[in-house]
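mind reviewing these tokens:
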Amino acid sequence: MSDLIVQRPEGLYCPPGNFYIDPWRPVPRAVITHAHSDHARHGNGHYLAAAPAEGVLRTRLGDIDLQLLRYGERVQHHGVTLSLHPAGHVLGSAQVRLEHRGQVWVASGDYKVAPDPTCAPFEPVRCDVFITESTFGLPIYRWCPDEELFADINAWWARNATHARASVLCCYSFGKAQRVLNGVDPSIGPIVVHGAVKPLNEAYLAAGVALPDTRLVTEVTDKADLRRCLVVCPPSAAASPWLRRFGDAQTAFASGWMQVRGNRRRGGYDRGFVLSDHADWPGLLDAIAATGAQRVIVTHGSSAAMVRHLQEHGLRAEAFQTEYGDDVVEADLQPPPEAAG
């Protein structure tokens, strides 16, 4: 029996369905797991995605030919039954379930199993073959509960505010920024967002996600507010002249990579907060086990370590070579200079 998903130069391809999943080259038909730029790219003829992703996809890709599916809704295409299921990664993220001639495959894209009020929770989907990420696929990566993390972030912000210092928290504009905004305590002070964050906030708000009031720096009339605010911006902004408007600010980076000592120092940040939109090591293993799959394909991250671990535990495991990864997520989310706010 032939594989339902194979590797091609354009991306992951479903031969019987004649479509691609998160292709990295332009193709006629693309199924998109989520709107991060390494998974949703310009140039495809037709896009299929989960309904909650509409706002963020259109914010990122503009006027595209977009077909939307509710989570769990099934469609048939060339004999392949396709449905989308929550991945818990960011707003509208989905796992792609394919069924054809008795086989069930699930391509998960990126996913997170920890609770997150800004997107639908991860839903395990039973399958024969599971295609998984492994961004943090090493035993050192284990996340603490959000309550502890945000208590730490709020304490850092409040302490800085009492010393008349802005708290600049760098994180990805899409997904991470909204999760930060949803979790912090807005009573501590005003919140300023970078121009790359604002349109994505608007898409989240339109989807019914609760976010606090925010301002662009150009909308701040009282300069004293710039000395006690929380600033949410992409990492690139921390190295730009835009940051000078906040004076002697304290900087921090929110990322799962902050789990490793030395990453904060190499980035030149004052603080590092371990916050990820990906599953940690236990989360990855739990998610894989919950599918019941006997064959697992790893797409990106610590794939060699994950494949070896799964093989040692009796599963048929291998890796696909893909072009997914965090290094390109922010590349096309930066606004032109006049929009940076």
